[in-house]
Amino acid sequence: MRVLVADDERLLADAVAQGLRRLSMAVDVVYDGDSALERVAVNRYDVAVLDRDMPGCGGDEVCRRVAAAQQGTKVLMLTAAAGIRDRVEGLGLGADDYLTKPFAFAELAARVQALSRRSGVALPPVLDRAGIVLDSTRYTVTRDGQLLSLSSKEFAILHVLMRAEGRVVSTEELLEQAWDEHADPFTNTVRMTVMTLRRKLGDPPVIHTVRRAGYRIG
Q1: 121 in a structural domain
Q2: Pfam family of this protein, just one (predicted)?
Q3: Do 40 and 77 belong together in one domain?
Q4: The domain containing residue 193 runs over which residues?
Q5: Per-residue pLDDT tens for 154-180?
């Protein structure tokens, strides 16, 4: 899952990003509306977490443009204004959800997860394929009933592959969905992460390499 966090409160934005990354999300962070627009112009995000009161291009305008682009990105608007009128205005701009500051991180994470399930083809939070059960709400993976210990990136790659339901997923797509903008596309990071994931999943192998195309599970 790819998430954009845009908030001029740097400590808050960085803390939110760090927490979401621990939940196996790929997170890009910006601190103003202009930078947010630059990111959404070049990257496909499942969810954008936008502060309504940012310098430069405000969160309202970023929300309008994200909604107008119709790329499937869901918007969670953050604001210190807690009045009903403010929430109605935010939703009227095209936001999909609204959260007032201060907030509990657990609630924000749950809202981001819920929005991500609405950003594309609706899928259940628990995926089951080839004896592997992945629970994206509890962040657990089992194979044949055995609980597995995966890193955040291994979990993210497995989630992308299982969502593809047997379709071949390219290395570029895995980089786009499981890593943030600082990932080096010329490294073998995907190959190495898939290799360790295969080892942890055990035998018989369920992740298959399709030469010059990518990976599939099944």
Answers
A1: no
A2: Response_reg
A3: yes
A4: 126-217
A5: 999 999 999 888 899 998 889 888 887
